[in-house]
Amino acid sequence: MHKLLSLLAYALLSIANIFAQSQAQLTHYGDSLYRQLQQIENSEERAHALLELSFFWSDYDTEKALHYVSDSQKLLGDKANTSYYQGLLSFYRAAIQFNIDPAKAKELYMQADAYLRRDVPAKNKISGTRYRARLWGSYGALLQREGKEHEYVQVLINQVIPMAKSIKDSTLWGNNLQNVAMALMNLQEYSKAEEYYDNALVLLEGKQEAGEQRFTLYVNAARNALLQQDHIRARTLLDSAAHTATLVPASSYLPVYHDVEGSYWQKQVNFDQANFHFEKALIGAKAQNNSDMVASILFSQSAAFKTANQPAQAMAKLREILPYIEKNPSLKNKQTVYYHLATTAAQLGAYEESVKWFEKYKIVLDTLLTDKGAALTLELEKKYQTAEKENELLRVKAANQQQQFAIQRTRTLAGIFLLTTIVLAMLSFIWYISARSKKRLAAQREKLNLFNAMLQGQERERSRIARDLHDGLGGMLAAVKLKLSAVANREAKAQPQTDSSMDLYTLINQMDHSVNELRRIARNMMPESLLYMGLEASLRDLCNAMDQPQLQIDFQATNLRTDYSQSFLIAVYRIVQELLTNAVKHSGATQIWVQCSEADGYFYITVEDNGKGFDPSMDDSKREGIGLSNIRNRVEILNGHLEIDATIGKGASFHIQFELAE
């Protein structure tokens, strides 16, 4: 795989001019990559390289991208039928459908996720998680295209970023911090977006393999700076983007870079330079057949012409946008374009055309539950009537228009009243659902509090019984043993060995076993090593104590501190003890692995075995001998997360995560 990366890096550096991205250059670049990956001897690595090459072509040539996926599948042979590679093949097919058929792409992304959550080999665990993070990011981007901006942010924060953090992939992590920043920017949260951009830059700065991610980061952060009127920061970021683009000369994000450059020069009142970059952006976007990008760039160019007091050119660009926004379901885009068409037509004196666009604009506004625009439409209508210079006809038309507006206003008010009623009904329903949810949550919290109190009471009682057994009964048995030993010694000195003296020694040995058993019970109820030597020592003692000739227990600890709270220590100890007890009693395993670690403010517990496994979808009550309710409750009390990965016949893994308080 290192050879593959070096070949790809060499190919990226081989194209000198980053701003001239013709179809011929793209073909030459892709063919060059294909020839170089043919030198890779390992078939599995070559199959991976073919998939990445298909990902590159997915923005430019669908047929070629599908062909490379097919070649990769053939090269993998029987491996292509495994869950891991089925997931990868679905992921790359989804990338090809991303712009062509978004619904099909979403279906393929979820199919890939289902495969990658199955029994993935240990060597592919990290890469499988990385692919899952990538596919969820792409799935969220499709939600964003549907106007579901908040859902997109939730996918990034709840799915993608935790996966990137779990595998410590700073490039993936930083790239998705950038995605959150872009979503916040679309929601006009520019200050928050800047914080996420800065955090992403810290993670991606200096990483040679993250050239594409840093390039998009600089471009998007520059756009955010322009929206905040911070032109100095925008210029610095755009210069960094231009430098980074030399590492990714075939990036599909180059049109966006030119679009932001154009907006920057528009702000600097350098319209020739602005138009130069807008034209470069349009060429790149059209080469990619990216209609959304083309429409966005055309709109930016029209705004620049309007700022330069060139309304005719602005109108021409707005008309070019119409075919794109008419096919796009976004009403907000239609509203914006219709509005600018109307105002620009009015600026040109084309009042009749202006009225037509304002009518379209007002229809969209009505759909979006707003009544803005009526006054502007009336004003433009009056200008149009004045231009006709027929006073009598104008009075008739004005009367008719007033009547129409009155009727339309009445209809609009009735519609608003109806919609208000519907909204109030929905709000009432939402309040009702929320109240029910709060009630259920309160009941669950009360149940957890009760369970926590019961646990604390049990631990106190265990501690008391352990002290009584160890200090009380243990001391008494030890004293009895000493006295019996003294009697045995006296008899041995007084007379030769007899049957009664042998019975006495047997009794002493039994007393020894009783004392040892009593200490074992006391230690299980409340191990002294947990209170005096720390968590790592007590867990190691626990694993050693449960180790058997036919069952090996391997314990590993990483970065464990000695200052955890007593309640946390006891909870972790009991969880591990319960999991080990279940594994010993029910799994039939010959090997158990226990891992405890702390990293980045989180505490992790993993217990795995190679036993007979079980079906995790079955209710606790149906799993004979395996009760997880106590463990689940302990985890919930500490606001932790429990994940079970088990398959019948293939062992079981329990992964627990706690967020540690600052």
From TrEMBL:
Residues 464-662 form the Histidine kinase domain. PROSITE patterns: HIS_KIN. This is histidine kinase. One of its GO terms (molecular function) is ATP binding. Keywords: ATP-binding, Coiled coil, Kinase, Membrane, Nucleotide-binding, Phosphoprotein, Signal, Transferase, Transmembrane, Transmembrane helix, Two-component regulatory system. The keyword Cell membrane does not apply. It catalyses: ATP + protein L-histidine = ADP + protein N-phospho-L-histidine. Residues 377-404 form a coiled coil. The chain crosses the membrane at residues 413-435. CDD domains: HATPase_UhpB-NarQ-NarX-like. It is an enzyme of class 2 (transferase). One of its GO terms (cellular component) is membrane. Its EC number is 2.7.13.3. InterPro entries: HATPase_C_sf, HATPase_dom, His_kinase_dom, Sensor_HK_TwoCompSys, Sig_transdc_His_kin_sub3_dim/P, TPR-like_helical_dom_sf. The lineage of its organism: Bacteria, Pseudomonadati, Bacteroidota, Sphingobacteriia, Sphingobacteriales. Residues 1-20 form the signal peptide.
